[in-house]
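agent> fetching stored inputs for the NAI docking request
agent> found them:
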Amino acid sequence: MVTGAGSGIGEQTAARLASEGAQVILVGRTVSKLERAAQQINEGLSDPAADIFQADVTKEEEVQELAGFIEQKAGDIHVLVNNAGTSGNSSILNMEESEWDRIQNTNLKSVYLVSKALGRIMIKGKEEATEVNRSIVNVASLSGHKAGAKIPHYSSSKAAVINFTKSLALEFAPYGIRVNSVSPGFAETPLTEEGLKNKRFEEAIQRNTALSRVGRPEEIAKVITFAASDEASYMTGSDLLVDGGWMIT
Ligand code: NAI
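agent> prediction call returned; pasting tokens
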């Protein structure tokens, strides 16, 4: 299951997981975006690999309904990718409380709500099928490592996701469920579209990135898929930085 799967990194991750044989559930708020993404995955397949579920992952009732849907449809879940997220631009002094809450709820509270509701299903599944690879991947950010100007709410929420991942990894390790985070640098998605229209911003990214370019969402999706998979069977509580070398310049 991938949250925020109607666009960008989430959409690419769902497609990648499906291409590696997973049955995926695309979760998000906008049905039309989810349907388009699922249709692309299912195109040409005799047995559809993608299904959708509409939910706002900041709302506990909707997350509960999502958990109910998964229990009824599949009875189990192997991989959860907490990818839904959002950003904004504000200084601390000018920020409204509602804006602070919007970012914390979308980026951090959602990870707690979805991990709790679906983690319970994973733990139950583990008791019945012990050999299956089970893992959670949370999408954090380069900004969780290095605070950026005018995104104090975003940077702090993503730093919290990296730390929450470690707490959850400790709590779920006895059940054999691995939990890791992936921290993307700048990737071309609807989230960064506006900023990247500014040539100077794009040039600044190129200058500050060892690989001298913006990333593509599928390059992030591949690393998320690796962390989710059995290929990463001895990795838990880790953060994978996928930033084109931003942090080493
Ligand atoms: P995006 O805007 O295309 O994807 C985010 C998705 O989450 C959207 O489809 C959005 O509708 C969904 N979403 C937002 N709030 C939601 C809610 N309450 N309930 C359900 N779905 C919700 O942007 P992108 O870039 O693909 O972002 C994916 C993740 O990657 C986010 O967590 C973002 O913070 C993170 N990230 C992105 C970077 C980039 O440069 N694109 C850099 C670092 C991190």
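agent> quick read of the result: Helices lie at 8-19, 31-42, 60-73, 97-128, 152-172, 190-196, 199-208, 217-228.
agent> awaiting further instructions
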